[in-house]
Amino acid sequence: MSTQPSRVLETFPNPQPERDYCIRIRIPEFTCLCPKTGQPDFAELTLEYVPEERCVELKSLKLYTWSFRDEGAFHEAVTNQILDDLVAATQPRFMRLTAVFNVRGGLYTSVVAEHRAPAWQAPQPVQLP
User: Fold this and answer.
1) Per annotation, catalytic residue among 20, 32, 34, 70
2) Is the whole-model pTM more than 0.70?
3) Is-contact 104 41, C-beta < 8 A?
4) Which one of the listed residues 32, 41, 55, 84 is annotated catalytic?
5) Is residue 34 flagged as an active site residue?
């Protein structure tokens, strides 16, 4: 596998496709460029998803997020693009991407984008006594 930035998202078979379970991936070092100034923007991404048949392979995800390092992008656009690409690669039952950007000009930005498969309903939480 390459050690250069790449837009290729590799996947592997879900080991438990009959079960709803959540995969949570924290990506604390995401960077892209401000499309207005060209200065770097820094964010922490949190990916949460309930897989169907495929899971995203972590090294390819790392190289994928690295590919945005020298690209200008508005926070809203890049968050939705990453979600769309991940959904296309994995076809999950549910996926949420939260992007928490560091301060820029005295303003903090968080963007949350979600995908739900058409017929999927989240199971009700178990209530313990």
Assistant:
1) 34
2) yes
3) yes
4) 41
5) yes
